[in-house]
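Continuing the series of single-chain predictions for the mutant panel. This is the parent chain; the variants come on the following pages.
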Amino acid sequence: MNKAELINAIAAESGLSRADSKKAVEAFVSSVTGALKGGEKVSLVGFGTFLVTERAERTGINPSTKKPIVIPGKKVAKFKAGAELSAAVE
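Parent structure:
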């Protein structure tokens, strides 16, 4: 499901117009992004948790030269599914 399909599904299930559904999806994405940028985690009980973790610096190998290179650490966004979502998918 892509963003357009999600907007259509929300409009169909909620009775909102497509325009209002699009605004709701964009507001959700913007709010979650802002919270993660600010170092917060976003927990939706029964659905899951969005959080930011740090990847440590590590050594890799350049595939063309076979020489070791340093891959810098960085922050990455993660999603951990909640119990209800995990049970629904099984």
